Structure formats: C-alpha cells, structure tokens
Please model this.
Amino acid sequence: SQQGEEDPQALSIQEGENATMNCSYKTSINNLQWYRQNSGRGLVHLILIRSNEREKHSGRLRVTLDTSKKSSSLLITASRAADTASYFCATGVYGNNRLAFGKGNQVVVIP
Amino acid sequence: EAQVTQNPRYLITVTGKKLTVTCSQNMNHEYMSWYRQDPGLGLRQIYYSMNVEVTDKGDVPEGYKVSRKEKRNFPLILESPSPNQTSLYFCASSPTGTLYNEQFFGPGTRLTVL
Model:
C-alpha cells in the first residue's frame, strides 16, 4: 500500500514561530488526514482534506493539498510548547478501506 | 465519554506464550483496526474489520489473529509471540471505514516479548 512521506523529519522552532511540514504520496487518493501524537500516546485526528479540496483551516492549523504534485502541507501558526509532538499524514485511497500512514515529523517547540 | 480502550497498557511476556490484547469502543463504530508502531517505520496496519464477522489483512498480518464477534470489541491475538513483535500497538475505530472518516485511536499497548 502507498504511504505518505513527511518532510522534514524533525523540526525545532521557537514558541510563536510557524511550523510547516510536508507530506508526499504516490497514488491517487480520496482524502488525506493529519494526526498528532504526543510522546508514546495514541494519535489524535487534526484535520481531513478531501481530494477535491485545496485548502482547509482549523484553528491555528492550515492544510493544503496539491493532487497534481501528490503532496500536502500542514502549517501550524503561532506555535506553542504544547504543540511539541509527532505529526503524521495518512492517505485514504478509492476502493481501499485502509489508511496508509507516513513515518511522522517530530516537532519541538522551545518555550 | 466516547473512547477506544485497550488492555493491557503494558505487557512483558516470553516467546511462545499466547496473549490477547483487547480493544473496545463505545461509539457504535463499524470500522476497527490494529496498528503497530516501530521507530523509523511509522504506523503499519495489521488487520482491520469493516463490521461484525468481517476482517481483512493489513500490511503486516503475519503472526497475528483477530476476531470481530461483537461490534464494540476487536481483540488482537498473538498465538506464539516472538521478539520481533515487540512494539507499540494501537487500536482505532471509525464510523464507516476510512472514506472521509477520521479514526479514533486507543491509548496504546506497549508489548515486550523476551
């Protein structure tokens, strides 16, 4: 199955700065989702963007999707120490009842 | 409270000793899934279930079994655990599969096989 690939793998920023992560995938999708995982805990869903959408916002989160480039980005604005976590993208494919997860981005926000 | 629960949360066992990790959800979700998470490999799906009595293999099903006799429960069975099954395991559920549905994750089970 396909997998999302996040880039960069690790990011360290100061509180208040913006954090951007990218995800690329290989085949056509019907949706792309972003999840957050605090150290060793379960994943928490952040946002879902459908293949016919180009941009979506949720609070301080902004997700874009470029299906022609098979890529997505997650922007966290005005980061906080509590945003320190791993962020995963996951893709859902037509006709396939499974989500394929990327390897994750580690984000550290320094107070 | 809507949630996915897993038990046990931590387990240390020895090679070959059969074990079961339970998963239960109280949201009446049709879809349930098991993942394992290993450093550098991300999350990989083990098995999933679209509904009661319907299960299917994910990416890494070898060495695992599942059953879905009731809608709320989806236990993961390791008949003869081996050290390469040492991992962090997550159960997840969603209303109706992955099409336009977020998945709700349990807290995880950290398994060590000696």
About this structure: DSSP finds no helices and eleven strands in chain A. The CA atoms of residues 65 and 72 of chain A lie 4 Å apart. Chain A touches chain B at residues 1, 3, 30-31, 33, 35, 40-45, 48, 50, 88, 90, 92, 96-104 (CB under 8 Å). The first strand of chain A starts at residue 5 and ends at 7.
